[in-house]
Structure formats: C-alpha cells, structure tokens
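Practice set, problem 2.
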Amino acid sequence: MGSEAIIVFLIAGIILVAGANFISNLISPKSDSEAKRAPYESGMTTIGPTWVQFKVGYYLFAILFLIFDVEIAFLVPWAVVFKSIGAVAFLEILIFLFILGLGLLYAFKKGALKWE
C-alpha cells in the first residue's frame, strides 16, 4: 500500500465531493426573490446600512479565544495520561504553556484585550 493508494483515495475524494455538489445543485429547489436577498435580523427590517465594518479588536479577541480553546484541547489528553508519560512530557508541556503565555503577554501589550 504505497503512493498508488493515496492517489486512488485522493481521486475518489475529489469525485465524491464534486458529485455531491453536482447532485445537490440539480435537485435543490431554486427561488430568487427580493425578500430572499434582503438582510435578516430577528425578523425586523434593518435600519440604516446593513454592511457595517466591525472593529478588528473583535476578531483579535476571537482568535485569542480560539488559541486558548486549542490549548485546552491539548492539555486535557495530556492530563489524562500524565502519570504514564514521564518527566520529559512535563517539560514539553511547560514549554508549550510558556510559549502560549508569551503570546498572551504580546496580545496584552498590543492592546488586543482592551474592550473599548
């Protein structure tokens, strides 16, 4: 099982995805109206422009949340097998947490955590 299998799986994946998209476009109901293209907010007609630009701080805050969410995804399995993996893994997780701490310190210094 070498590179031929990888190529077969890649081609099969491309064909399945393209086929699913093609079939869904064929059988899906199509309707186009002014009401469908109108922006929707809680069932009410919007007041003012609907395409407003958000502050970049919201995106930075969301990215920081994702970073620390991924950190938990790495820490939980590590904590489950902590006794069996030894001191080297403990040192590695300390380095991981140190790097994340540096990232948090950098974000704090740049003002990404200020909510104004």
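Problem 2, part (b): a different protein.
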Amino acid sequence: MIKTFLFILINMIVLTGCSNKEEQINYPIYEGTVVYKEAENNKYKFLVLQNISKEDLANGDSEKFIELAQNQEAAYYYLDKEHYDSIEVGQKVRITADLNQNESNPPIRTALKIDKINE
C-alpha cells in the first residue's frame, strides 16, 4: 500500500513539473502604413495598409482606404489609448498581433505590440 501511494505521489510530482513548461507562441508580425484612426466608446482602432501612395493617403477617406485594402494585406487593429494617441496617420508601423482575428474584409485584429518604423 505504501509503495502504491509513493508511486502515485512521485508520478504526480513528475507530471506536474513536465506540464509547467512555457510554450513560446510565434505571434504574426505585420508592417504597413496607418491610414485611418477611429475612437468610439473607449475602443481605439486604426487601419493599416501594406502599400499606399502618398497621393492616396493625402486624398483618401475611409471608404477609399477600405477599397484599397481589398487588394492587399490590410487590417484594422484594436489597441490601447496610449498607443492610439502616439501614432499618427501616415506613420509606418510594425505590429505584433494576437492570433485571433474577426473574419471581415479587412480583418480586425488586436495589436499586442506596436513599433514605429522610421524611414
């Protein structure tokens, strides 16, 4: 009986130790230009297009940007107010995004990390 109890106890300790390994998650990273910002009901998001000309950026509106987004890698990103305030339209960014996204066109993702790209 003691041997059985000792065997179960040792197995529980070993299995618990093996299950605590941290899994490294490779979050996707996207780059592009912020073309549109929106704040509504304490939710902050911006639209990032992979490719946009300076002319389209200067003359575009949200509908034009969404039209351009249909033909390239583009997405809306939710983010916190601090990052929302620090990034301007026209800024190139590198975004680490959550694995989950809303299946719209363009998709909606949550930004985990945002880096400004200086040109």
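Answer key, part (b): The first helix runs from residue 2 to 19. Helices lie at 2-19, 54-59, 62-69, 81-86.
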